[in-house]
Amino acid sequence: MNKELRVAAYAVCVQKEQILLARFVARDGTRKWTLPGGGMDHGEDPLDTVVREVEEETGYTAEMTALLGLDSIRRHYARRLGAVADFQGLRIVYEGRIAGGSLRSETNGSTDLAAWFPLEALPSLDRVELVDVGLELWRSRPPVGRSAQRGSTTT
C-alpha cells in the first residue's frame, strides 16, 4: 500500500455574513464548493501557500489574521494497476481578510468558479466537508486548534 501525505493551507474569509468559496472540480467532473486554498509546494511556508492559493482561485489579495487550527483526514483510494493508496491530508486553516484585488474565477486550475455566499445558505450548497470544518474552527476558535467535534481519524 502506498502512503501519501498532502499538506495544504486554506482560508476562511467571512465578511458581512458571507463566506468566500471556490468550486473544486474533481477528476471525474464532480463540482463541489470548498474553502479557497490548496497544496503546499516543497519548501513553501504555509502562510505563503494560502495567500498564493486565495489569489489564484479568487483573484483577491488576502491577509491572514489568525491561525484557526489544523484538520487531518485519512482515506484509502484505488490507484492504477490495482494498487491502493493510504492517503493522509493535513489541512492548515487560517482566518483571512480580503485586502485587495477583485473577484474572478481561476482558469486551468483545480477550481472553476469563485463566489460569496450568505452563511445561512451553506446547508443548501453542494460542498466538501472542509467548509464545515473551517467554519466550526472560525466560530469556536478552539485553544488546541482542533474542533471538539473532530476526534482521531485513524483507520
Structural notes for this entry:
The chain is an alpha+beta fold and 155 residues long. The chain has one domain (2-140): Nucleoside Triphosphate Pyrophosphohydrolase, CATH 3.90.79.10. Helix content is 16%, strand content 47%. It is built from two helices and eight strands, in the order E-E-E-E-E-H-E-E-E-H. The chain has helices at 46-58, 129-140; strands at 2-12, 14-15, 18-25, 31-34, 37-39, 60-78, 84-101, 111-118. It has a four-stranded mixed β-sheet with strand order 5-1-7-6. Strands 2, 3, 4 and 8 form a four-stranded antiparallel β-sheet that branches. Strand 3 and strand 4 form a beta hairpin. The radius of gyration is 15 Å and the shape is globular. The model has no long low-confidence stretch (mean pLDDT 93).
Short account of what is shown:
The protein is of the alpha+beta class.
Question: How are the secondary structure elements laid out?
Answer:
Elements (H helix, E strand, L loop, with lengths): L1 E11 L1 E2 L2 E8 L5 E4 L2 E3 L6 H13 L1 E19 L5 E18 L9 E8 L10 H12 L15
Parallel strand pairs: 1-7
Antiparallel strand pairs: 1-5, 2-3, 3-4, 3-8, 6-7
